[in-house]
Amino acid sequence: MSGFRRGVRLGIDVGRARVGVARCDPDGMLAVPVETVPRDEVSIDRIVQLAGEYEPMEFVVGLPVNMQGADTLSTTDAREFAAALQQRSGIPVRLVDERLSTVTAHAALRSSGRSQKKSRSIVDQVAAVVLLQQAIDTEKSTGNPAGATIPPDEEHA
After folding, report:
1. Helix, coil or strand: residue 10
2. pLDDT tens digits for 104-142?
3. In what order do the strands lie in the sheet with 148-149?
4. In this structure, is residue 151 part of a structural domain?
5. Residue 81 has what pLDDT?
6. CA atoms within 13 A on the CB side of 61
7. Confidence (pLDDT) at 66
8. Is the dihedral of CA 130, 126, 67, 93 positive or negative?
């Protein structure tokens, strides 16, 4: 655990209808669901409120690139959301490839016996947990934080 930076992180899974939020403890032992925030004009305000509660050192925002690793409309949306979040909260944001987090989340919920319909309300939180856990595991195994930070000059883009 030599290169792991101690501190709470909030994982953010940006969707068109909902935003899943997860958090981890300062030692990165466990990522847990926090809540699903409806995607609207106040969703960033709500996440900033949550940040006030949990005091994260950073946000880990999932970047939904396609299987070839290229940007999609959702990627652009997530980047814009992340930049707005960083600007409003003053908390650094790391963008992390979340190619499989939603798929993994659906699979985990299915194997726990939940129907697709019942899972809809929490799948975003579970996807946020998955992407946050992947980021923590990457940092612990490589000693380098996962993903990339948003350069401050892009904040007002």
Report:
1. strand
2. 778 887 888 877 777 777 888 988 999 999 999 999 999
3. 31-38, 18-24, 9-14, 58-63, 93-97, 148-149
4. no
5. 97
6. 28
7. 79
8. negative
* Residue 155 belongs to a domain: no
Indicate whether 3 belongs to any domain: no
Give the domain range for residue 119: 9-146
Question: Which two structure tokens, joined as six digits, stand for 20?
Answer: 């899943």
Determine the pLDDT at residue 152.
66
Q: CATH number of the domain that 23 lies in?
A: 3.30.420.140
| pLDDT value of residue 108 | 81
Alpha-carbon dihedral angle through residues 46, 47, 51, 53, given to the nearest 10 degrees:
40
Q: Which residues of the chain have pLDDT under 70?
A: 1-2, 100-101, 152-157
Q: How many CB atoms lie within 10 A of CB 25?
A: 14
> Maximum CA pair distance of the chain?
46
128 belongs to a structural domain: yes
